[in-house]
Amino acid sequence: MKFWQPITWAETDQLIEIARFAEEVGFHGVMSGDHALYPGVMEAGYPYSDSGYPPQTEDSEYPDQWALFGAVAAATTTLRFTCGVYVLPLRNPIEVAKACATLDILSDGRFVLGAGAGWMREEFDIYGIDFKTRGKRLDECLEALRVLWKPELVEYHGDYIDFPPIRLAPAPKNDIPIYIGGANKLALRRAARYGDGWIGAGNTPEEVPQVLAELNQLRSDYGRADRPFDTLIGLMAEPDLAMFQRLAEHGMSSGLNMPFEYALGKGSSLDDKKRMMEQFANRIIRPYS
């Protein structure tokens, strides 16, 4: 099993040192988070809490993902990086395709695109994009990205994404993995159909075997069961070596340490974060390997 460190909400000026240290102690990758903005007024719509409101606040930091990933790529040599998840239907897939291809080359294939439909209606309203069509827009964005990464003139014509023959250079040197995030049935189906992996939204250890079985069945339904597929799952439980070993037997391939803010509280120091990562490495990563 591979292990990742979530870096969502960590202070932006600490992120490079966090990435360097994560690589040093043996993490496979780091996973950030994405939102374009925080609205002054938000209606309840967050699907992963009883209140309908998200855990972040208006001062929670969401740095630009492409600037962050470029900096992490330059500061590390083996560490992978992804976003859990990038709100893809909010963005222009041509610009995203170019950024991904550039990162793939500059990082020597260490970038993973983590994408999802998004849940915050206000983001879409402010961007002038229909919130109700985000799922269909996401599907077309995923199809368009695979087309745009080809080293030739390409075109795509969908209901929401449409462009004439164009070419983006440079093309990526590697097949850029796409991991799809989300917990509902549509997200699982989308991951099985389009994804090279799935990013969970937080599961109890008891839920994981059933989710993995469902993903396997869906991938078989789409004729993709023979392809590599990563499952990057955050567990709503204290990290434990035996738990990860047990879930690996059910097919879980990547585990997460806890987010810093959940484990240490808001505004923890860089030294506190390093100690937390080193403790996880000593208790989980090194014994597991």
TrEMBL record:
<keyword id="KW-0288">FMN</keyword>
<dbReference type="InterPro" id="IPR050172">
    <property type="entry name" value="SsuD_RutA_monooxygenase"/>
</dbReference>
<feature type="domain" description="Luciferase-like">
    <location>
        <begin position="12"/>
        <end position="235"/>
    </location>
</feature>
<dbReference type="Pfam" id="PF00296">
    <property type="entry name" value="Bac_luciferase"/>
</dbReference>
<keyword id="KW-0560">Oxidoreductase</keyword>
<dbReference type="InterPro" id="IPR019921">
    <property type="entry name" value="Lucif-like_OxRdtase_Rv2161c"/>
</dbReference>
<protein>
    <submittedName>
        <fullName>Putative F420-dependent oxidoreductase</fullName>
    </submittedName>
</protein>
<dbReference type="GO" id="GO:0008726">
    <property type="term" value="F:alkanesulfonate monooxygenase activity"/>
</dbReference>
<dbReference type="InterPro" id="IPR036661">
    <property type="entry name" value="Luciferase-like_sf"/>
</dbReference>
<keyword id="KW-0285">Flavoprotein</keyword>
<dbReference type="GO" id="GO:0046306">
    <property type="term" value="P:alkanesulfonate catabolic process"/>
</dbReference>
<keyword id="KW-0503">Monooxygenase</keyword>
<dbReference type="InterPro" id="IPR011251">
    <property type="entry name" value="Luciferase-like_dom"/>
</dbReference>
